[in-house]
Amino acid sequence: MTFRLYVMRHGDALMKAPRDSLRPLSQLGHDQAVDTAKHLHSHLHLHLGSAPRLVLASPYLRAQETTQHMVAGIEYTNEVVTSDEITPNDSPDSVIKLLSDYESFGSVLMVSHQPLVSGLIGRLVSGHYHEGPPMGTASIVCLDMPTVGIGMANLEWVKHSEL
To answer: Exposed, middle or buried by CB within 10 Å (0-12, 13-18, 19+), for 29?
Structure first.
């Protein structure tokens, strides 16, 4: 059995808010999230058995709003777990440890932030933080790995927002 991880960066967000964690999506960000959800929904219909069995989301408002669009767009009906361990400046190694706790789910969608998402992808694929792909707003990658660990993942595909 393999572990599939979808790693997504939140959609475009407004710059003005009392603090970073309260920045909402802009209209562009909402549109991007809907578009990415449509892409993932199409992918999931073509690859039965790869649908997320768990969704992990950052507690930051822009990630929560993006997650709402993703959950609706892929018709996900299970639990959404909000994790304080996947915010912008958290450590990719800490997230790898967190993900290993969810390995039994088989497939997880994680909605988070830069610079964490690029560093995490780089660490999972090549073992190096700085070798992850650039992740624009609402970008998503699909990783497959036999087990959650440093350098264990194969990058299956990347989808960047075209909006």
So the answer is: buried
Mean pLDDT of 59-81: 97
* Number of domains observed in the structure of the chain: 1
Number of Cβ atoms within 10 Å of the Cβ of 45: 11
Q: Which CATH number do you get for residue 18?
A: 3.40.50.1240
What letters, b where the CB count within 10 A reaches 16 and e where it falls short, cover 100-129? eebbebbbbbbbbbbebbbbbbbbbbeeeb
* Arithmetic mean of pLDDT over the chain: 95
pLDDT, residue 49, reads 66
Name the maximum alpha-carbon separation found in the chain. Answer: 45
| Alpha-helical regions (H) of the chain | 27-46, 61-73, 92-100, 116-125
Please state whether the predicted TM-score (pTM) of the whole model is above 0.85.
Answer: yes
- The phi, psi pair for 5, rounded to 5°, reads -125, 125
Q: Is cis: bond before 115, omega within 30 of 0?
A: yes
Question: Which residue in this structure is represented by tokens 């999506």?
Answer: 25
Reduced to 3 states (helix: H, G, I; strand: E, B; else coil), residue 50 is coil
Mean pLDDT of 63-81: 96
For residue 89, give its domain range: 3-159
